[in-house]
Amino acid sequence: MKAERMSKKADEKRPTSDEHFAMKNKMLDEQIAMQNKMKSILSPEQFNTWKSMKEKHHEKFKERRHERRPDYKRE
User: Fold this and answer.
1) Using alpha carbons only, how large is the chain's radius of gyration in Å?
2) Burial code of 22-31, b = ≥16 C-beta within 10 A, e = fewer?
3) Eight-state DSSP code of residue 42
4) Which of 19, 28, 50, 74 is deepest in the core (most CB within 10 A)?
5) 70 and 62 in contact (C-beta within 8 Å)?
6) Closest Cα partner for 63 from 49, 50, 75, 51?
7) CB of 22 within 8 A of CB of 31?
8) H or E segment at 12?
9) Following CA atoms 56, 61, 65, 70 in sequence, which dihedral angle do they give, to the nearest 10 degrees?
10) SS3 37
């Protein structure tokens, strides 16, 4: 089972730097679109609350990632 997984992983092609850049841009565009959609739906107070909750969630995720991999340098 483990050998099968390792062979699949070796056969897998990693995205090129251009493909990776395109994926990141697409993700950021989707995040901006989501923020604009939420801004149009929510009141300004609700939008600020939503944004702060989202930031807190992001911080907790970074902490959990650091707990699992303390040598992880990327932020």
Assistant:
1) 18
2) eeeeeeeeee
3) S
4) 50
5) no
6) 75
7) no
8) none
9) 10
10) helix
Residues in the chain: 75
Residue 12, amino acid: E
Q: In which residue are the tokens 């911080």 written?
A: 59
Residues 6+ apart with CB under 8 A from 65: 72
Tokens 């990327």 correspond to what residue?
A: 74
pLDDT tens figures, 35-50: 999 999 999 999 999 9
Helix, strand, coil percentages for the chain (3-state, nearest 5): 80, 0, 20
Q: Stretch 19-32: mean pLDDT, rounded?
A: 94
pLDDT higher than threshold 70 for residue 62? yes
The DSSP annotation for 55-72 comes to HHHHHHHHHHHHHH-TT-
